[in-house]
Amino acid sequence: MPWCYLPPDDEGCAKGATPVPRARQNVLLELGYFLGRLGRDKVFALTRGTVEILSDFAGVVWEAMDGNGWKQTLGRELEAAGHAIDWNKVMRA
């Protein structure tokens, strides 16, 4: 299962509106590639902070990187996709 990391490294807005944090356009392009190639149910996205999420990416599993809960969620998603997960390492990281 591929995953994408979407940090708020950029800002964008409609003309005349207030800029909001968003991921860089190349990251969104890569996320779109994974969605088109593999399907929404096989892609995992990690976000940090407040990031604008486009409606085109509805159906993707999103997880905020706050605390350590995201590591468990990512581990569960990878395990469900057939990857062997060493939960001792996940819990220590």
Automatic annotation (TrEMBL):
One Pfam family of this chain: CAP12-PCTIR_TIR
MF (Gene Ontology): NADP+ nucleosidase activity
Matches recorded under InterPro entries: CAP12/PCTIR_TIR_dom
Protein origin, superkingdom: Bacteria
Domain CD-NTase-associated protein 12/Pycsar effector protein TIR: 8-66
UniProt protein name: CD-NTase-associated protein 12/Pycsar effector protein TIR domain-containing protein
Protein source organism: Pseudomonas savastanoi (Pseudomonas syringae pv. savastanoi)
